[in-house]
Design brief:
By secondary structure, this protein is of the alpha/beta class. It has helices spanning 16-24, 37-46, 61-71, 86-92, 108-113, 115-135, 155-171, 196-204, 223-236, 252-263, 288-291, 322-326, 339-347, 350-356; strands spanning 28-32, 53-58, 76-80, 98-101, 140-146, 179-185, 187-188, 209-211, 217-221, 242-245, 249-251, 270-272, 284-286, 295-297, 300-303, 329-330. It is globular.
Length: 360
């Protein structure tokens, strides 16, 4: 298959919220880690539906207060709780119908120096959440994972890979009544931990924009696309599915130039400082082994659950030759956005424009 024939999915919402609305109507939802950039964007989408209640579960009471003031909607209920506390999770998730698990420690270098903390939140904390979900007979759970969980080389990626494995083990429980779906995505533009806010600040101050390595590539998704993936999982995902949205990528150097061009006129200076602990040059959203059993449609990959209960693993059924369609799905091999394309993407991005104009 030629390059022109490969699927190119633009970063535009596919309207999966509309399909999910019927499922959400009158329901109680919970979001762990709900005060982060993803949680805030998800809440913005959920408030457009007829959801009965949104429980925002996090440890940061200040961010919870800001979130309440931002949305001013009585359906939002903020709860201070920690995913590391299993009893706490059982309590706060009572009577919940649908759960989005987004709570995580995400900084790669931090995880390299404090791996036990990352494991405690991302792995063991996720198991606490899943245990509580099954105990409370929550109908649907959507777990948020990352491209760093594919062939992981750092503690953060390893902790998320284990979260995925634990999620799949719970999905194999017979008659639990809880459907578990995993979503995996790459770098989300302007989210917490994104390099874009730092690039904007450096450019405004007239300082050189610092890069780790100009060769580095990363998948690019808007927050809206990340939310779209979650709603797609909610509306179409089956128990044990891992869902991945086909995404373009870009060189970090081109991303820096695009941000610099949009922030101000005049020359820009880039300063390469070297790769940080635990970073890859290129990321993967789906492994070669997963490609061999995955299916692809409507811009999404679907990796099915290997169902065998507690018996010895059976051979996975062969997929639809997706590997022949796209080859290795890495941030180097996927569609590469040019500087101009990145600029167009950022110009229409709500979060970028808020950062650019210092909006609240």
């Amino acid at each position: 298959m030629t390059e022109s024939e490969k699927p190119k999915v633009t970063l535009q919402s596919r309207g999966n919220l509309q399909f999910a609305n019927e499922m959400l109507s009158g329901k109680i939802l919970a979001i762990t880690g709900g005060t982060g950039s993803f949680g805030s964007a998800l809440i913005r989408g959920l408030l457009q539906t007829d959801v009965l209640e949104i429980r925002v579960i996090s440890r940061d009471e200040d961010k919870q207060d800001k979130l309440i003031r931002k949305f001013m909607d009585s359906r939002i209920r903020c709860i201070v709780a920690d995913v590391r506390d299993r009893w706490n999770m059982e309590t706060v998730l009572r009577k919940v119908d649908i759960l989005f698990h987004a709570a995580a420690l995400k900084q790669v270098p931090t995880g390299e120096f404090f791996p036990t903390e990352v494991v405690a939140t991302n792995t063991l904390g996720s198991e606490n959440v899943l245990f509580a979900a099954v105990r409370n007979q929550i109908n649907k759970v959507v777990l948020l994972s990352t491209d760093k969980a594919v062939n992981p080389i750092n503690a953060m990626g390893m902790s998320k890979a284990l979260m995925e494995k634990i999620g799949l083990s719970y999905a194999r429980l017979e008659d639990s009544g809880t459907s578990i779906t995993i979503t995996r995505y790459g770098n989300v533009l302007c989210s917490r931990g994104s390099v874009i806010p730092k690039f904007i600040e450096q450019r405004k101050l007239g300082k050189p924009i610092t890069l780790t390595d100009g060769r580095m590539t990363r998948f690019l998704m808007s927050l809206d696309d990340a939310i779209d993936l979650v709603f797609y999982a909610l509306s179409t995902g089956q128990n044990g599915n891992t869902l991945i949205k086909y995404a373009p990528a870009a060189k970090i150097k081109d991303l820096a130039i695009a941000v610099s061009n949009l922030v101000g006129s005049g020359p820009h200076y880039l300063n390469e400082i070297g790769i940080r602990y635990g970073e890859k040059i290129h990321e993967s959203l789906i492994s070669d082994d997963e490609l061999s059993v995955a299916t692809f449609g409507n811009g999404f990959f679907c990796i099915p659950l290997a169902r065998d209960g507690l018996k010895q693993l059976l051979p996975l059924e062969k997929g639809s030759e997706v590997s022949q369609l796209v080859g290795p799905f890495t941030s180097e091999s996927t569609e590469q956005l040019s500087v101009v394309q990145i600029m167009k993407l950022l110009e229409t991005n709500y979060e970028f424009n808020s950062l650019l104009h210092n909006d609240a």
